Amino acid sequence: MSFQPLNPRPFLQARVGTEVLIRLKWGQTEYKGTLESIDSYMNVLLRDTQEFIDGKATGALGLVLIRCNNILYMGSADAIEVTDMEYK
To answer: Which GO MF terms does the UniProt record name (predicted)?
Structure first.
């Protein structure tokens, strides 16, 4: 079995215009919004963004820029359901 690395840039570019969920490295903060764009450093621009802390919605933020080194993971929002402290 050999390991085949995957370039994340084409994967992320294919998701522009879709709804994503981003978890930050720091604390229990997550952002859910539509992926507007991603740059060559993999910084992310979200629109219609909602913030979740500890699984609870804290409000709508609108347009948000997230620096790449703050992102723990990013996934499709329809694949992840955010509920109070529980992820399905």
So the answer is: RNA binding
